[in-house]
Amino acid sequence: MIIDTHAHLNFKAFDEDREEVIKKCLKANLTVINVGSNYLTSKKAVEISRKGIYASVGLHPIHVDKEVFDIERYKELALNDQVVAIGETGFDFLENIEKQKKVFSQHIELAKEVNLPLIIHCRKAHQELLDFLPQKISGVVHCFTGNLSQAKEYLNKGLFLGFTGIIFKLDLKKVIKEVSLDKILVETDCPYLGDEERNDPFFTKKVIQEIAKIKEIKKETVESMVSGNAKKLFRI
Ligand SMILES: [Zn+2]
Question: Phi/psi of residue 160, each to 5°?
Answer without folding.
Answer: -95, 165
